[in-house]
Amino acid sequence: MKDLNNKVAVVTGAGSGIGRALALALAKRGCRLAVSDVNESGLAETVDALKGTEVKSYHLDVSDRDAIYAHAAAVAKDFGQVNLVVNNAGVALSASVREMTDEDFKWVMDIDFWGVAHGTRAFLPHLIASGEGHVVNISSVFGLIGVPKQSAYNAAKFAVRGFTEALRQEMKLENQPVAVSCVHPGGIRTNIANAARMGKSENAAAQRKGFDKLAMTTPEKAAEIIVKGILRDESRILVGPDAWGIEAINRLLGAAYQPLVERFSRKNLYV
């Protein structure tokens, strides 16, 4: 997909952060937009910012499989085609394996993994039918390395990475007209940390302050990088200098990266 003009783009989690920035960036490229979020007020703000663009908004809880499939059918009916799907909606949890509840673990997996998997599968037939489709699934740098107190988030984001990389190979082997990209953002200045759930013993204020210090990239810059990656058909899109650094450490050291993370975590997470 070398040109996004007049393409129909679907963006989940478009009510804030990367999702909103992506919607705006895609609109500048001439996309027709189907934006969704569970937060209706945030979604309305995104739609207001997209004045002059052909856009339709949808209330969507990506943890609801049936709702996702109904959403895919509705978008295809409303726009007549679907070319690009960005499965972006996500949440965060900071809690140790011992402390996190089953409910919180399920909450993260239902949104961060199953939301992506169902979103991909629901839209895939429409993308194939378009003759020029692209799936973009948002993982994380936590889909590249394991981090203490992020086991649930790691589980979801590693799963997104594996699912997406396998899908890309399948589309090529089956000669389907669908490109596939997995996005690994580093620290992005969004509200995800403020909205994160915390384990019982976590210092929420300190955790959020620490995240803010590490967030190197604006949502707008992240969106620009992602759109360029889409147009280049990149299989792995790294967002931010921290993402490039983490990917390099993982590639060079393999499992030996873990002592580095342990030292960082002892200083910053176990205080």
From TrEMBL:
Looking up Pfam families in the UniProt record yields: adh_short (PF00106)
The EC class name is oxidoreductase
Which InterPro entries does this one have? Answer: KR_dom, NAD(P)-bd_dom_sf, Sc_DH/Rdtase_CS, SDR_fam
| Ranges where the Ketoreductase domain occurs | 7-191
Locate the coiled-coil region(s) and give their ranges: none
- List the SMART domains: PKS_KR
Q: Which PROSITE patterns would you find in this protein's record?
A: ADH_SHORT
- The residue range of the signal peptide is none
E.C. number(s) listed in UniProt: 1.-.-.-
Q: What are the protein's UniProt keywords? A: Oxidoreductase
Instruction: Enumerate the GO terms in the molecular function aspect.
Output: oxidoreductase activity
Task: State if Oxidoreductase is listed as a keyword.
Answer: yes
SUPFAM superfamilies linked: NAD(P)-binding Rossmann-fold domains
Q: Which family does it belong to?
A: Belongs to the short-chain dehydrogenases/reductases (SDR) family.
Q: Which PANTHER family match?
A: PKSB, RETINOL DEHYDROGENASE 10
This chain's protein is named SDR family oxidoreductase
In which organism is this protein found?
Marinobacter albus
